[in-house]
Amino acid sequence: AAYGALPAPGDHARAAFDLAALAIHHLRTAGLPVADWLEQARERFRMLGDRRMRLAVAELTPQLLRETAPLAAPSTEADPDLLEALSGMMLTLSSLDELGRRAVALAVTRLGYEYGVLLLEKGEPGTFDEVAEYGEHGPGKKGDSVRYSRTAISRMRATGESMYLEDHVAVSGLGAPSATQMRVQAMAVVPLRSGDRIIGCVYMHDSRGENPLRVRARVQLEGFAHLLSAAFVRSVGQQEIEAANARLTDENISLQRALSAQPEYDPADPIIGLDPGIQDVRMRTRQAAMSSTSVLILGPTGTGKELVARELHRLSPRSSRPFIAINCGVGPANLIESEMFGIDRKIATGVAARPGVFEMANGGTLFLDEVGEMPPALQVALLRVLQERVVTRIGSTRPIPLDVRIISATNVDLAREAYEGRFRIDLFFRLAVIPIELPPLRERKGDIPLLAHHLAAKLAARQARPAPKLSRAFIQALVESDWPGNVRELENYIERILAMTPGGDLQPVPPPRDLSGYGAQAPSAANTSLPEARLELERRLIHDALRASQGNQSAAAEALGITEQSVRYWLRKNGVAKTRVNRRTRKK
């Protein structure tokens, strides 16, 4: 009464299981609905997704069969130790294939049949594959193509119940041509189940004469199939766990290799900037992240192409899978090829097999940096991988299916390289489905103060010191520099100044590389007279104009709105006039 009143399905299921176990182990099962209790427990555990308890129910069922079988029609034709022998095999054998072979031989031998086969759903759902067979399958030889009745197995799957045909008349009524050809006189087909799904079957037949299975033998065979089902379900679950562990191990190794090969990366780094150009990059990155389409990131060296690639991966549905980066322009072609596609163990004696970056990134993202430097032979191989979505290790002929998103980056005009024949144009179109172009730092100088404060705080945290203050002169010098090396050069400069400054206030000493010709940093208004500030401003404006015009005095004078003679006079007056550097070019 208390058992029936339990409200929670989990408590109800556990109570049904405990009552059944108590009845089987300590009480007489006669008159008790033990089979109903086990069925209710099994069904509720299935609904709750509790695989462990479902297996416990499966292991308890054969014990119930042993208790109830003698109450039917006892027979000496079936070996009473069949279930005990199978249980012993399950405890001692770890190989699923070996267990299947020995189990079929055990059932055929002890139940007195001529031939038996074990079929299991191992590959495509709904398709049974032969796991093991034993005995002679009929009057023909063992190599014949017809060994068992597929019609009988289809009938069993349609009804979902065991099928026992105990004489020639019953077998003939099945309408199975193969059974008639093999002159089958008796047949048994018992399903293997995983919950409500049939995952395989035990098939046995005899052509030597009628061989009916008595009640006890049927119970033995049903229990035999039940135990095998539990063994296979447990084995498949274990294989899934082992495969998942192996996959996690491979991913961990690949991540370790990627971390050791790539510069240190802080995943908290955002794409920083308020400039419209960088805002467009951020918007395109978010839009492209949700698809698996190939992305080509363009931009000068040091603009943060890998940062954008990692942001694409982080925002994508593949974020939980590996992100692997490889530089396509470093090292000889054969080394890059082996790193990309992997090596098979058969390639040479003593060479260990290893996966390439495509396999390591399977399910995730592969970042091809400096793809414009890739050798022509590798371009052909990469194109094949992108077209067929398979990769073949060097020295192997077995293709490996791939599910990898490709993100590539280059600092060259890849479209021009392709149209001028220095890069495969078909590969360019495969890579540049979604192009994202990063602007150089000199085109978004308004973002330099934001970047400087962010980089200074990050570098200070790396050095375990408080975030420094950036002086006005320091920010002014950063904004005035053109940063040919872009954000990477800016970060290196801030790190150098931070390392050389023990205090908390950073000054631009020494100044950035392209400002070193100015001498010391610009004097502040507090200690500079008006004539000095005017002269300093003239010097900087003329210097900037000459640098922008690559030393062309006429172009610099035109940009400044003064005459060319004024520029030459200023250069001579300040002792920096050098004809070969600041050349004169008159308009025609």
How is this fold's topology laid out?
Elements: H1 9-26, H2 34-48, H3 51-68, H4 82-92, H5 96-111, E1 115-120, E2 129-135, H6 150-159, E3 163-165, H7 168-173, H8 177-181, E4 186-194, E5 197-206, H9 215-261, H10 276-289, E6 295-298, H11 305-314, E7 323-327, H12 333-341, H13 357-360, E8 365-369, H14 376-388, E9 390-391, E10 400-401, E11 405-410, H15 414-419, H16 425-431, E12 434-437, H17 448-462, E13 469-470, H18 472-480, H19 486-500, E14 505-506, H20 530-548, H21 553-560, H22 564-573
Parallel strand pairs: 6-11, 6-12, 7-8, 8-11, 13-14
Antiparallel strand pairs: 1-2, 1-5, 3-4, 4-5, 9-10
Helix pairs in contact: 1-2, 2-3, 3-9, 4-5, 4-9, 5-9, 10-11, 17-19, 20-21, 21-22
Main traits of this protein?
alpha/beta; 14 strands; single chain; 11% strand; elongated; 588 residues; 5-stranded parallel sheet; 5-stranded antiparallel sheet
- Give the helix level as a range of percent: 40-55%
What is the strand arrangement across the widest sheet?
A: 2-1-5-4-3
Number of DSSP E strands? 14
Total helices: the number is 22
* Form type: elongated
Most strands sheet = 5 strands, antiparallel
Give the N-to-C terminal Cα separation.
111 Å
Beta-strand percentage? 5-15%
Average pLDDT, all residues = 78
What class do helices, strands and sheet pairing give? alpha/beta
Unreliable residue runs = 69-80, 139-143, 259-269, 518-526, 577-584
Radius of gyration: 39 Å
